[in-house]
Amino acid sequence: MKGALIYIMLRFIARLPFHSLRIGLLRLVGAKIGRCTGVYRGFEVRRPSKLTIGKSSVVGHDALLDSRMGLTIGNNVNISNQVMIWTLHHDYNDALFSETGAPVEIQDFAWICSRAVILPGVTIGKGAVVAAGAIVTKDVMPFTVVGGVPAKPIAKRNRGLSYNLGNGIVPII
Q1: Which burial class, exposed, middle or buried, applies to 64 when counting CB atoms under 10 A from its CB (0-12, 13-18, 19+)?
Q2: Range of the structural domain that residue 109 is part of
Q3: pLDDT at position 71, please?
Q4: Catalytic residues, which ones?
Q5: Other beta carbons within 10 Å of 37
Q6: Hey, how many other C-beta atoms are within 10 angstroms of the C-beta on 25?
Q7: Residue 139 lies in a domain
């Protein structure tokens, strides 16, 4: 029953009209979220007590953040619309279809493009880019651009990143 109430409350929080209100309530239920961060409407969080988001990061509309095994998102990270980040799934070889998983880490200045999927146990390195629609099954090295299914390196990214995503957050979206 407690889990159902938390789920309903999180769905309500996801629809509120202001970042500050959504973030304040997420903090109230245990999420650790840095200043100047934006969490856009429609997101879903599973187990907010194991979610950490750094400062000046952005989580896009309808993103799914599964932090049941632990999810750490660094500073100035762009999680675009409809991204799914999973830390827990089922073992398809287990006779009982048991759950298995591991924490996910997304380091500073990473960009996860729309509709990308990050699977359990993956680390996305500093400044890395995951292309739209990619499915990431293995760690992504810093400043590497990956794409495809499964995601593979397709380019390198410049290392001199100094932008601040917190400056562009629209407060009411």
Answers
A1: middle
A2: 2-160
A3: 98
A4: 90
A5: 23
A6: 17
A7: yes
